[in-house]
Design goal:
Shape: globular
Strand order of the largest sheet: 2-3-5-4
CATH superfamily of the largest domain: NADH Oxidase
Strand content: 5-15%
Number of strands: 6
Helix content: 40-55%
CATH architecture of the largest domain: 3-Layer(aba) Sandwich
Largest sheet: 4 strands, antiparallel
Length: about 325
């Protein structure tokens, strides 16, 4: 007979239960410690010279500039901090002799070229910008970044057309949103798969402009844009999960639901933009308080929702090559 079985016979059941709890807690700590160490070691939290980290920062700061280029109320010489960081990491990337034909590098150069072209068209001189930019060879940079002007298209789309049609839209028509279309989109998103079909999602909706304004101030990533007509917030309830090995599942299930919701909104003729909830704990608690969200729920993503304008501008957001994504035998 094993020692474990002998212990169960000897010890009172209440102590056996407490030992099981202690073992589960220890297993939980061990796994979260592994997550902590992995994130600390491999993420871009610290200033390192790792190629993958520099590429991630090139994309991050390039996207910040692209958003500004797509803004309807364009502000000349915007993005000083993002530009300085982008030049810093481009220089570092060059100094370390990394691949100058990578998507991340060429996209960054293309974003800067689009920024330059925009100011040239407005006859705005930028000597400080050129002092930094002219160090890079950009004449042959592909035209993959900047912004595009799109037009409202109400045709019925196949799924593949829908995927390419959907963009993050930050400026909406000022007409009222048909909430039945939003409801229909949620019903479609409910078809999203989840671990053991637990369906742990909730979608909080508000069209109260004062509440939306306050929530977006807390979110921090929608500055300079008009308040959207509708704001939704997708959450996942931790009570739906039962083991330590499922500790990351809320964000997997939540992320899949958000993507389904976005496609469904597009299919229902509504424009949308995801807005992350990566904020400090006190800010997240304030958001929960405003929306009446339980402490057992984690925030996955805000989604700004509205009707399309007849003409609207979006960031190009160039995508990686499939060979950088798909790995085969």
């Amino acid at each position: 007979m094993s020692i474990k079985k002998e212990m169960k016979k000897i010890l009172p059941s209440v102590i056996v239960k407490e030992i099981k709890k202690m073992n589960k807690r220890r297993f939980l700590y061990k796994n979260y410690l592994n997550d902590l160490n992995g994130y600390s070691k491999y993420s871009g939290m610290w200033e390192r010279s790792d190629e993958k980290q520099i590429k991630a920062k090139l994309i991050f700061y390039s996207h910040a500039i692209e958003k500004g280029l797509s803004h309807p109320n364009f502000r000349v010489r915007f993005g000083k901090r993002a530009l300085n960081n982008l030049f810093h990491y481009l220089s570092k990337y060059n100094e370390l002799n990394y691949n100058l034909n990578s998507m991340e590098y060429l996209n960054a150069i293309s974003v800067l070229k689009a920024y330059d072209d925009k100011h040239k068209n407005l006859n705005v001189p930028m000597p400080k910008f050129h002092k930094k930019f002219d160090r890079f060879k950009y004449d042959s940079a592909p035209d993959v970044a900047g912004s595009d002007v799109l037009y409202l298209n109400k045709k019925n789309m196949s799924f593949s057309e829908l995927i390419f049609e959907r963009h993050s839209v930050r400026e909406f028509d000022d007409s009222n949103v048909d909430l039945s279309k939003v409801k229909n989109s949620v019903e479609m998103a409910i078809r999203t798969p989840s671990v053991c079909n637990r369906q742990p999602w909730k979608v909080y909706l508000t069209n109260d402009s004062k509440r939306i304004k306050k929530l977006l101030e807390l979110q921090g990533g929608f500055k300079g844009y008009t308040i959207p007509p509708v704001l939704s917030l997708v959450t996942v309830d931790l009570s739906s999960f039962i083991s330590v090995t499922e500790r990351n599942e809320p964000f997997v299930d939540g992320g899949m639901f958000v993507m389904s919701f976005l496609y469904a909104l597009t299919d229902n003729g509504l424009a949308s933009c995801t807005l992350n909830t990566m904020r400090p704990v006190p800010v997240l608690d304030e958001i929960k308080s405003i929306m009446g969200i339980s402490s057992s729920e984690v925030l996955i993503s805000f989604i700004a929702i509205g009707n399309y304008k007849k003409e609207y501008r979006v960031a190009k957001s160039h995508r990686k090559n499939i060979n950088d994504i798909m790995i085969t035998d």
